[in-house]
Fold each of these.
Amino acid sequence: MSPLYKVATASLVPESLMRDHSIDIHQLRAGSREAFRDLVDAYHGLVYQFVHNMVSHAADAEDLTQDVFLAAFRARTTYDPERGAISTWLLTIARNRCVTATRRQSPELPGAFDAPSRDRPPDVQAAGHEVWKALDEALDRLPRDQRAVFVLAEIQERPLAEIARIEGVELGTVKSRLSRARDRLRQILQEFRPSPASHDLSPPQGNHDARS
Amino acid sequence: MPDPDYDAWLAQRRMLRPPPELVARIVQALPEAAPEPAGRAQTSRWGIAIFASAAVLVFAVRLGLLLQIFAFPETSHPELAAETFPKEPRHESRMDIRS
């Protein structure tokens, strides 16, 4: 199985299968570079996807992804498999790095780290998806905490309980942040579609509630 | 009812993939990052040693001062010694007897 395939499936499979990355935690904690390379192979896609959705620009996302893994390597002895999956640990580091980076970049404008994403393939840009551009802008303007929850829940489809651990907040707080983020995006869609029946963003039955 | 544009937007956000060279770049950056914990730990150990030495020194000085006060009160703090250990009343001189 190629690393890319493993990463591509990482967010779509149950947590128990995500551990099937043959990463030797003991070796990783001991500082083995081989084990660290396995870790990067297995999870760089997951981390990059989260970071890119947090900061929009690909170059920033690559730099931050590198920072996340180097920070993880330095803090490798703090990882405790009993306390959570390695993906949760990495996403927690990634979340903190993104928040620090966005705070440094724009202290007065939470969530407005970058201009809307311009890193899409040319054919998508040429298609002129005005709705997508508006949604990109809305995502960029979300407060940091709402954006992180939205990216983890809606885009990466992580369980809400895991998001609560990553954010270090109660489950109810995660749900309220997600609800506010969805409301914000719903408002954007309403501007494009006056009919209220066509922009219901609520998840399908048994989606997030079931995962929580 | 889900919005198709919204679902398509989410789908393309989920398709964001890292460039193939990112893994090599991260692993290459590792040797520069690796010595840092050792350096930090070394710095931290030196900091603890300096702090402990300073604390021991301060404690020793204070202990010495206390010993000096109680062992040799007259030389260290005469006014305190006068209050704490009053001298015997001096004998009256001849002049005083005459008067």
Note: Residues 35-71 of chain B form the longest helix (37 residues).
Amino acid sequence: MENLELSIQIALNYSHVDYPVPGVNTTSQIQIFTKLHNFGTIAKGTTGFFNFTGVFSDFNVGAFPNFTTQVDWLRGPPAIEFYANLTISLDYSIGLHSLTIGILNLLVGGLP
Amino acid sequence: MGAVKNMVRGFIYSAIYVVTTIVIPLAIFSWVRSMVVQGFPLDFEQQDYESIIFWLTAFGLIISGCAFFKYSSPKQSIRKGVFALIQVLVNCLYLWSYKFSGATEINFVILNFGFFSLNLQQMILVYMGIYFLTIVLKGYDIIDFTINREKIREDRMKA
């Protein structure tokens, strides 16, 4: 098994206060985390244990909303929801066939 | 009697090719389309399915037709050599049709969960490359049958 890859994207769902016009709150989704990690090759008959780690630079800090003025905390609960997209891909038999499995919009948590 | 025997052989091989190039692939794709994984139904796109079925059936019928003429022709005849060569070329197109119809890149949407994608393009291309080499052999057969035509006829008359 070659090119075992795991991609994780986390999106934040919230109600944007006074957007697009004052008095109207619109549900918005922004991507706050993206990371792709390649775990390489796993030889036949062996088992691999891997750690997937994210660092500060993997977060899209610039996309975060202003939590005090832009987030409608009266919505919900939860006012903020976190959704994840998980994609696992791998190649078999010297790359003759490739497999990709994706789990989309998986609710992983919320605040408060 | 030999002609009738050849015709029967042609029909039998033609039927075998109909089963292997049309019936079995159709059954597999229909089965995959209705598959349920861990309680999640797979959503195989209708357009992809119809495109795959169209091209497999089209090339499958041509292959089966060529198989009839190839196997009903006398052994070592130029006709047999020509149809064998045509059949190899059509077989290559049949394999290629798996690629361009989308059958080698199958995408399933698992409703309310995610997706599943299987890519077999490299495998088909390698198989096609290997199969393409048989064109050389079929070309050699035609040359051989043409050059030794008289000897082949004499041997056939003796037998």
Note: The CA atoms of residues 142 and 152 of chain B lie 13 Å apart.
